Amino acid sequence: MSKKLFIQTLGCAMNVRDSEHIIAELKDKENYELTQNMGEADLILINTCSVREKPVHKLFSEVGAFEKAKKKGAKIGVCGCTASHLGDEIFKKAPYVDFVLGARNVSKITTAVNTPKFVSTDINYDESDYAFGEFRGSAFKSYINISIGCDKKCTYCIVPHTRGDEISIPLNLLLNEAKKATSRGAKELFLLGQNVNNYGKRFSSSHEKVDFSDLLNRLSEIEGVERIRFTSPHPLHMDDKFLEVFANNPKICKSMHMPLQSGNTKVLREMKRGYTKEWFLNRALKLRELCPDVSISTDIIVAFPGESDSEFEDTMDVLEKVRFEQVFSFKYSPRPLTPAAEFKNQVDEKVASERLTRLQSRHNEILDEIVAKQNGKIFDVYFEELRANGGVAGRSFNNFLVQVQGSEELLGKTLKVRVNNPKRMVLYGELLEKI
Ligand code: SAH
Ligand code: SF4
Ligand code: F3S
User: Fold this and answer.
1) I need a surface site. Which of 136, 185, 271, 386 has the fewest CB within 10 A?
2) Which residues form the Radical SAM core domain (predicted)?
3) 194 CA distance to ligand 1 centroid (A)?
4) Does 253 count as an annotated binding residue?
5) At what angle do helices 277-290 and 309-322 cross, to 10 degrees?
């Protein structure tokens, strides 16, 4: 009889894909089946995030709850980025945890499950040419990790300490993965990495020379691939070649994530981001010029150590000039192992909250104007999700979430929709095509 696996995934899309790899290994090699019911699981996994302090607290509250409610004899494993940076300290705080498996050690999951108190958190471990089995949480969404780790070492960021140095996955593995996804019926590929447009910088063994633009072109030649999305690209590597491939390849979805972090050049230097306010604006405005329909999303950190009121105003200024379609904004959170956590000039919590509120309110005003302009527009929507309120939702080519009345027969299809009730989070519309 098969054993039951419950897995909870926190953090970013790379963690979602790592969880799919873990599930594939455990299904193929250890005869596990997924369950949504933690109480009946033989193995409970939590795939963790460390990027800010909050998700780390969440790990300990969640495993505590698992321990209380789990079936007798069930094992608990902690995987992912917090596993990488806390390692066996996790056993001290939560002695009932059975194993700890770091974010860069996913292929060792079967050993972890079978070895009491197993710990493996080596951030130099190289599993970039490991061919994982196939498992997808959704038939329509095909995440593909194209690189592991990050070489950038921004001074606030823990990721290089949890996922190690950057290494690209060999092209042949990526092409195979994409072909498998399309043969299952997926029409969209979603490429993932901390710094995707630096793809090809380093492979673990000798490899043909290929960069991110080449990778996009090669993937778009695969039969059945209708759309390609990716995250996160780094603004520093947005050279003209990249922006032109992005604009001119008709299969690349016209939405770009451009993580700003700060609009002030001095703060950017202290963050070690490698670009200036002017470079960022130049790239964003060039992108808008090349692709008038593009939607641009961003990540912003407010109250980085030493950020003054006037430096924060530069971030507000970039917000006005770029008019992002989506903003993910965070208060700076000091992280262990990072240089910025040691900076002496930490910003007062109250000031940080005020800045965050101001940024978010102004973004919402801009967003309301952007959203109102979508009324009456016709979008090609790739439907991929049933919504709780009876609708079906999907993404427009430029990444708006669009929802219509309908049922599961829409899933996996790309259909024309006219927007008639645009809201901040979702554009409601009517289907213009019969299926
Ligand atoms: N590789 C991506 C970022 C991945 S982390 C990039 O370079 O953009 C996702 C986001 O979390 C970051 O863009 C940043 O905005 C935020 N973040 C990372 N470390 C943080 C910290 N210490 N405090 C607050 N936000 C942080
Ligand atoms: Fe972190 Fe910077 Fe790397 Fe992004 S580029 S993962 S923010 S170190
Ligand atoms: Fe979190 Fe690790 Fe992703 S820290 S954001 S899960 S890379």
Assistant:
1) 185
2) 136-369
3) 10
4) no
5) 10
CATH of 3-120, one of 3.40.50.1000, 3.30.70.120, 3.40.50.1860, 3.40.50.12160: 3.40.50.12160
Q: Among candidates 180, 178, 163, 198, which has minimal Cα distance to 51?
A: 163
For the segment 393-415, the average pLDDT, to the nearest whole number, is: 95
For residue 429, pLDDT beyond 90: yes
pLDDT in tens, 229-262: 999 999 999 999 999 999 999 999 999 999 999 9
Residue 103 Cα to ligand 3 middle (Å)? 9
Q: What was the pLDDT predicted at 139?
A: 84
Side-chain half-sphere exposure of 39, counting CA atoms within 13 A: 1
The answer to whether residue 40 scores a pLDDT higher than 90 is yes
Which pair of tokens denotes residue 274? 């490698």
What confidence category does residue 389 fall into, taking pLDDT thresholds of 50, 70 and 90? Answer: confident
What residue's CA is closest to ligand 1, atom 3?
A: 194
79 annotated as a binding-site residue: no
pLDDT at 185 over 90: no
Q: What is the dihedral of CA 377, 192, 232, 46, to 10 degrees?
A: 110
Q: What is the pLDDT of residues 89-126, one digit of tens each?
A: 999 999 999 999 999 999 999 999 999 999 999 999 99
Nearest residue by C-alpha to atom 2 in ligand 2: 154
Q: Could you tell me if the CB of 259 is within 6 A of ligand 1?
A: yes
| 12 alpha carbon – ligand 1 mean position (Å) | 10
- With contact defined as beta carbons under 8 Å apart, do 200 and 166 qualify? no
Tell me the domain boundaries of the chain: 3-120, 141-372, 378-431
Question: Under CATH, domain 378-431 is a member of which superfamily?
Answer: Nucleic acid-binding proteins (2.40.50.140)
Closest C-alpha residue for ligand 3 atom 7: 159
Question: Ligand 2 centre from 347 Cα, in Å?
Answer: 21
Query: What tokens appear for 284 in the block?
Result: 């964003």
The predicted pLDDT at position 435 comes to: 79
Give all strands (DSSP E) within 108-204, no chain letters. Answer: 118-120, 142-145, 147-148, 167-168, 188-192
pTM for the whole structure: 0.96
Q: Residues with Cβ within 6 A of ligand 3?
A: 11-12, 14-15, 49-51, 80-81, 103, 159, 162-163
Percent of the chain with pLDDT over 90: 94
Class of domain 141-372: alpha beta
Contact between 226 and 251 under an 8 Å Cβ cutoff? The reply is yes
> What confidence score (pLDDT) does residue 140 get?
86
Examine domains 141-372 and 378-431 and report if their fold is the same. Answer: no
